[in-house]
């Protein structure tokens, strides 16, 4: 059995316990002594990682770029899901709101998710600025739901969609995942709302570690992580719960837009 690794994850949903208990047992069967600690919010998790009290943190994009910034780019990125690559957000509009292009947004009410949600607020507003939308002339209707969870629960995005449905907002920002799931569940009325704009791609969650993490722990963690296979039924159950088919090597370029957005708004 390898040297013990302590991993941090945020308990945004009861299924998180099931996921990490299963992954812990899988890792131990692979000869890697992995355990996990659950946090109520990402700010505490990031602080605990930076203090050296956990070895690895399973972070949102906001948590990831903050770890990178606070370690001056020296933190180690260990892996991500296939579904974390090329994520998108959407600006959805009521069909009766008279919004045909982004240029029609000024003077309208735009519902946005929690202020720490990359996909429902930070990056949609960043990309709208890049497209030349005068946001000072757009009335924002914010839903700061489940702060500290960085949008993981999707609750603020559901608030956005409800505001669109009942007419409190003319437009709203949501991530691809919530939009697709709500469509699949039949909870989106295509006669009422439509997609106006899809953002450029950006990357989502990442396993982060301090630069001081031993090579032995890095090797053991990555070896077991990347050995998980969709074709193995026992692996597939865990992969499905965590929303992926394959663990992928890390990459950093997919976080560049988020870094720029935080620089512009001084919201580090």
Could you describe the 3D structure shown?
The chain has 268 residues and is of the alpha/beta class. The protein folds into 2 domains: 132 residues, D-Maltodextrin-Binding Protein, domain 2, CATH 3.40.190; 110 residues, Periplasmic binding protein-like II (D-Maltodextrin-Binding Protein, domain 2, 3-Layer(aba) Sandwich), CATH 3.40.190. It contains 9 helices and 11 strands. The strands form 2 sheets. The protein has a 6-stranded mixed beta sheet with strand order 2-1-3-10-4-11, with helices on both faces. It has a 5-stranded mixed beta sheet with strand order 7-6-8-5-9. Strand 6, helix 4 and strand 7 form a beta-alpha-beta unit. Helix 1 runs antiparallel to helix 8, helix 2 runs parallel beside helix 3 and helix 4 crosses helix 9. The protein starts with a strand and ends with a helix. The model has no long low-confidence stretch (mean pLDDT 97).
């Amino acid at each position: 059995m390898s040297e013990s690794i302590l991993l941090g994850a945020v308990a945004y949903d009861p299924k998180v316990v099931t996921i990490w208990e299963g992954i812990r047992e899988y890792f131990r069967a692979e000869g890697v002594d992995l355990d996990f600690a659950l946090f109520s919010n990402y700010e505490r998790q990031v602080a605990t990682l930076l203090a050296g009290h956990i070895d690895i943190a399973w972070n949102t994009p906001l948590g990831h770029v903050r770890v990178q910034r606070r370690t001056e780019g020296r933190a180690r990125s260990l892996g991500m899901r296939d579904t974390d690559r090329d994520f998108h957000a959407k600006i959805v509009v009521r069909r009766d709101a008279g919004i045909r292009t982004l240029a029609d947004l000024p003077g309208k009410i735009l519902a946005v998710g929690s202020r720490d949600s990359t996909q429902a607020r930070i990056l949609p507003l960043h990309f709208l600025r890049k497209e030349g939308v005068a946001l000072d002339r757009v009335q924002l209707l914010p839903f700061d739901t489940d702060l500290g969870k960085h949008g993981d629960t999707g609750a603020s995005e559901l608030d956005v969609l409800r505001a669109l449905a009942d007419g409190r907002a003319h437009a709203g920002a949501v991530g691809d995942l919530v939009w697709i799931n709500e469509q699949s569940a039949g909870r989106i009325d295509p006669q009422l709302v439509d997609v106006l704009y899809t953002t450029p791609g950006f990357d989502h969650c990442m396993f982060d570690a301090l630069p001081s993490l031993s090579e032995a722990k890095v090797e053991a963690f990555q070896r077991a992580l990347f050995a998980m296979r969709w074709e193995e039924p026992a692996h597939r159950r865990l992969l499905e719960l965590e929303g992926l088919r394959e663990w992928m090597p890390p990459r950093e370029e997919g976080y560049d837009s988020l870094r720029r957005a935080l620089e512009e708004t001084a919201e580090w």
